[in-house]
């Protein structure tokens, strides 16, 4: 296990408390950060609704040296942070992360653009109901889905939900970001973890990402959905510990 702090970035619509279970279980220091407009991070610090603008907000909060873990949208941010500031990241962990969230003619492993647009339209009508629908999608197909859903719901309730402006901005980032080229330039040792039954980011997208990264390994957790660090905490922590033990 690395003595460096484990810095965790959460996904769309959640907040840093989603990692409370990991923090309680992990022997080392866990520093979880809120994305802009989520939890305790104000949206006013963002000058634009882009991946790099959100990275600019997170970067000053990063220790001088750390292990960086990103989940879903947080994984895309972690990948960009590692690309921009490799000297500050010893190892990278990408959980349920895809280099491109939306499908296209040259990328079949993403969400259909129309499906993402439905989420965007839903935000305008009822952002709370749309976020609740997204939480359900995250645990679908996972073992112990009801328990995982309850934990996600408690995480949202603890902070009162994200800023609706931040939710819309996050969907825009997911729609526009394409990190396939960036992945080939990140030479840090990387662990890519996917859930076998993930309904948000296709597990094959994680496999693609691990293959594109020069120094990555890929692990697929059986019967897990989009949040394996919650639903399959034992397996997740074992894989993470093995990966970080290599650094020691």
Please explain how this structure is put together.
The chain is an alpha/beta fold. The chain has a single domain, classed as Rossmann fold, CATH 3.40.50.1820. Helix content is 46%, strand content 13%. The chain is built from 10 helices and 6 strands; from the N terminus they run E-H-E-H-E-H-E-H-H-H-H-E-H-E-H-H. Strands 2-1-3-4-5-6 form a 6-stranded parallel sheet, sandwiched between helices. Strand 1, helix 1 and strand 2 form a beta-alpha-beta unit. Helix 2 crosses helix 3, helix 4 crosses helix 5 and helix 4 crosses helix 6. The longest helix is centred in the middle third of the chain and has 27 residues. The N and C termini lie close together (7 Å). The mean pLDDT is 93.
Topology:
Layout: E1 6-9, H1 20-25, E2 30-33, H2 51-58, E3 66-71, H3 73-84, E4 89-95, H4 113-139, H5 145-159, H6 164-176, H7 180-183, E5 190-195, H8 203-212, E6 216-221, H9 228-231, H10 233-247
Parallel strand pairs: 1-2, 1-3, 3-4, 4-5, 5-6
Helix pairs in contact: 2-3, 4-5, 4-6
Distance between the termini: 7 Å
- Characterize the main sheet: 6 strands, parallel
CATH architecture: 3-Layer(aba) Sandwich
Per DSSP E runs of 2 or more residues, the count of β-strands stands at 6
User: pLDDT under 50 segments (min length 5)?
Assistant: none
**CATH H-level superfamily title:** Alpha/Beta hydrolase fold, catalytic domain
Summarize model confidence as the mean pLDDT: 93
- Rg on CA atoms, Å: 16 Å
For the largest sheet, list the strands in their spatial order. Answer: 2-1-3-4-5-6
Count of domains: 1
* Main structural class: alpha/beta
**Shape descriptor:** globular
The helicity comes to 40-55%
The first-level CATH class name: Alpha Beta
Number of helical runs? 10
**What percentage of amino acids are in beta strands?**
5-15%
Q: Kindly report the CATH topology.
A: Rossmann fold
Order of helices and strands: EHEHEHEHHHHEHEHH
